[in-house]
Every structure is written in C-alpha cells, then in structure tokens.
Amino acid sequence: MLGPVILAASRSDKMRRFISAAPGTKQVVDRFIAGETVDQVVPIIEDAAGKGLEVTLDVVGEDITTPEQAAAARDAYLELIERLKDLGLGTKAEMSVKLSMFGQALDGGHELALANVRPVVEAAAAIGTTVTLDAEDHTTLDSMFAIHEELRKDFPQTGCVIQAYLFRTEEDARRLAAAGSRVRIVKGAYKEPASVAYLDKAEIDKAYVRILKTLMEGEGYPMIGSHDPRLIAIAQELARKAGRKLDEYEFQMLYGIRSDEHIRLAAEGHRMRVYTAYGTDWYGYFMRRLAEKPANLLFFGRSILTKG
Known about the structure:
Helix content is 53%, strand content 14%. It is built from 13 helices and 8 strands. The chain starts with a helix and ends with a helix. The model is unreliable at 299-308 (pLDDT under 50).
C-alpha cells in the first residue's frame, strides 16, 4: 500500500526538499493548486461561476509553529474574504479551513484556534457565505467538533467535515445530522492506526455509504466529497429515497480532478462545489492528493521522468 508511505513522507523535511526540487513537480502541483495568491485564484472563481459551479477555497499551509504564523493564516483568509466582497462573489465561494493553521497544535491551541477562526467566520457571514472546518488526523477531532459547536451558536451555517474511515464517524454523523447542519463526508486522507480506522478500501467504502445514508435521512445538509462514480450514483439514489430535492445536498470534488464530471453534475441541476486550494505552502496538501489515488502518483512520476 503506497498511501501510508506517501502520507509519512508528507511529514518529512527531507522529502519536502526533494519533491520541491524535482523538475516535474511544478507541472503536477499546478494541476491541484490553483495559484499562490488571491489575484491568481480570482479568475478561477469567476470561471467556475460562469459554468454554474461553486467553490470552496482553502489557503494551504498546516505546519504552524508560532502564534504569529497562526495570525498570518487568519489574515490570509480575511484578505480573501475582502476580495470576494469587492468582486461580488461572496455567494459563489465559501471557505474551508484547517484549524491546525490557526494554531490548534500550539500551547493553548484550542482557545487560540477558536479566537483566530471566529473573525474569519464572522467576515464570511457578512458577505453572505460561510466556512467549513476541515477534518484532520483523529487526535484533533474532539477540539474541531467543540469549536464547530461553539461557532454554530452565532453562525449556525458553519460546516464541518467527517471522515468515513474512522470508527467514530458513524456516531458523529448521527449527532450531526440535525436541522441546519452542513456536513461534508470524505473517505479520509491522513495516516491513521488500525485501532481507530478502517484500512481496507472495501470497508471504507461500506462505511461511507452507511454514513451517507444517515446524513441523507437526517435533517441537515449533506455535502458529498467524492470522485468515485459508484459512490456518486449511490448518493443520488439515497437522496431520491430520502425525498431530497437537488438543492438539499451538494457534491464536492477537488480542483484539477474529474473536471468534466463537475460540469456534468452541474448541468443535471446538482449543486457542484469545487474544492480549490491555493497558496505557497502546498506540500502537505499535495502529498495527500498523491496518497488518495495511485493515478495521481503515476502522473507525478511520468512528469518527473519527462522533465528530468
């Protein structure tokens, strides 16, 4: 299994330096990362809106070691929201944030992350959009869910992410499938031990379907994060059986992956949101994209060989 190996490499400074210097890296990174600055990503948002798509924007970067870096991450999102406001794109773009960027792993990190993310959520609400809290490794989730619950007191539209490969997620889904909730379900892309997570793909897929059924039969708003055609078809059938209209759930896929499917789903009347990452600290995000799908790794390998 290459996935766990790649995920381990995502935390290696030596591998970071090697991958960053590889001749073919930029070509592949550009496939998954929309740009380095707000100015570079704005045309992508506008293009998506013109195609009937929505986006969720992730300013990449997770290795935060100081409160000053956490504050800078907060300010990067506030800058993004100000640009969306100026361009009138607030209703077409939401934000996805990783609390690790806001200082969650530092001393007093729970309170620090909450203090940093709150103004971002407030600013997003002011322009008619919202924020989804991304899930990270299992050790961070109790803090993430507690921050999510706290934010929803004032900003009930704040979303969160759950990961199908974790044993705990079926219970989390039952709790979260309540009126007004927004929940994105993904398979999961962190290296987790067998004591807390399914490691077999078939078991992960089965869990995904069970959890998705809970969300579809609940009173919240499910967000289906998947590129798997079989799971997308199952999601459509579960939505039909639950009596959901097309605007009562949405699909989410990554920028640069299955772009034709983005357009197809939108043309069928589905809400289709493209997870669009940008920024200079792309390494951790990039490595998880490689780990998720062998084809991504093969694409990267071919690029290095042809550029070397």
